[in-house]
Each structure stands twice: as C-alpha cells, then as structure tokens.
From TrEMBL:
Residues 37-176 form the ODP domain. It comes from Sphingosinicella soli. This is Flavorubredoxin. InterPro entries: ODP_dom, RibonucZ/Hydroxyglut_hydro. PANTHER family: ANAEROBIC NITRIC OXIDE REDUCTASE FLAVORUBREDOXIN. Pfam families: ODP.
Length: 251
C-alpha cells in the first residue's frame, strides 16, 4: 500500500492484555472515507517479540512507539502472519535496529520466502511448537491460505489466551483498541469490500481448529481487537465463509 507523504502519521499504543501492547497507525488514505488501521503487537517479556513488522513507510512511527516501551536493542524476536508488505515490509529495518533480533517462522515459510528475504537467518519453529519468552509463551500455528498465503501462520500466547490472528477479522475504520462487541458484521463488510480471503474447502475447518484454542483475546491486524469468547467468534466466522463457499460452488 502506498501512503501520501504529506499525510500525518501517528502510532498509538494500548496495552490490551498484561504485557501485550497494540501499536496502531490509522491511515486515512487507505479504504476511504473510513481509513484503515495497521496494527503491530509487542509482547513484553524477557525476550520481547514483535508480531507484524508493518510496511517500510510506517517504520519511523512504529519504531518510535516501540522505543517508548522498550529499548529497540532489547527486541529479540520478530514474526508475522504471511509474506506481504504490511506484514513484513519493514522486517530488515527492524533487524538493523535490533541487532539481537531474529525472525521466527514456520519451516514452510522459511523455506519458500523468509530465509531469502531476511538479512539475518530466521529461526524455524515447527507446528504447535512453543517458545518460552520468559514470562510469556507463544505457540506457532500454521494456517495455510487462511486468510491468504501458502505460508500463513498465527501465534497464540498461552498466558493471556491471546490469538494473534493477522488479517482474519479485518475491519475498516479507526475503532477502539479493544471491543467486546460483535466484530463479525464489520469483518464481513470488509470482506465484501476487499475480497481478501482465500475461500477454499480448508478455510472453515482451519478457523474451527483455531477455535479449539479457546482464545479470550483476538489481536486483529486491521481494526479493533476482540475480547470475549474468541472460540465462538471463530466458529461463527467459519460458518460465514462456509456459506459463501457453498454459494460460490453453485454458480
């Protein structure tokens, strides 16, 4: 995505769970008139982890927001949901700013993209493997083509029951950092606008598998995060996509 240089950029920080900070930048030029939020998430632990790098154009603002929470050279791990500019465009800028940092990604993602794209060799972490960050524990969950990208993945932080779900539940606009209201209608409206989800026979089953984690917080990359029954929200989203797939199959 390309942002006009004259547009003011400001990244806001909200602690949405103990030690989990949402870094949100609203960009009015994207999806007008409501605009679009680009959210990164910092897990503060003995070995801090940043989920989503953001695009290169937002790096000055987002890195300043992170630096207000921890020294950048403390950052130890970087990860993201899939290969796309707003997910990993600034990856090498983060690796340069944080000399101890290393990208952590699934073996598939490392093999097909990350090992070549990253200026420093990534750490490969297998399916459902858990990393102890020191005070926080993250599990890697591969989600091929959900919402899109063969190498798609999510992270689940066990101590706060937070699922970092990337582009799933995308919403337009600049809503509150965390909501307990139903986010399904807004997510479906955004899907109607962008058509960004890979709709396959595996879409709904993957979402239902994620529901088995029983997250109480869904950390959403675009839009408000959701606090509540994350399993129910994931199952309802699965039902929506299953219905859409069935309709498409009859055309």
């Amino acid at each position: 995505m390309i942002f006009r240089r004259e547009a003011p950029i400001h990244t806001r920080t909200t602690e949405i769970a103990p030690g989990i900070h949402r870094l949100s930048t609203h960009v009015a030029d994207v999806a007008p008139p409501a605009g679009f939020t680009f959210n990164q998430f910092l897990i503060v632990a003995d070995e801090p982890l940043l989920f989503h790098c953001g695009p290169r154009s937002l790096f000055p603002s987002v890195s300043s927001a992170v630096a207000a929470l921890i020294p950048l050279d403390r950052l130890r791990w970087i990860s993201f949901g899939h290969i796309e500019a707003d997910e990993c465009g600034a990856m090498n800028l983060w690796l340069e700013a944080a000399p101890r940092a290393q990208v952590v990604y699934s073996p598939l993602g490392c093999n097909i993209s990350v090992s070549d794209l990253a200026d420093r060799a990534p750490r490969s972490l297998g399916e459902d493997a858990v990393m102890d960050l020191g005070g926080k524990r993250v599990r890697l969950v591969p989600t091929p083509h959900v919402p899109h990208g063969w190498e798609a993945q999510m992270l689940y932080e066990e101590t706060t029951s937070t699922l970092f779900c990337g582009d799933v539940f995308t919403q337009v606009g600049d809503g509150e950092a965390v909501t307990e209201s139903d986010i399904i209608p807004a997510a479906m409206a955004a899907e109607d606008m962008f058509g960004a989800t890979s709709l396959t026979p595996d879409t709904a089953p993957t979402l239902r598998r994620l529901a088995e984690l029983a997250p109480s917080l869904l950390a959403v990359m675009h839009g408000s995060s959701f606090r509540g029954d994350g399993a129910e929200a994931l199952r309802r989203l699965a039902d929506e996509y299953e219905q859409r797939l069935n309709v498409a199959a009859t055309r």
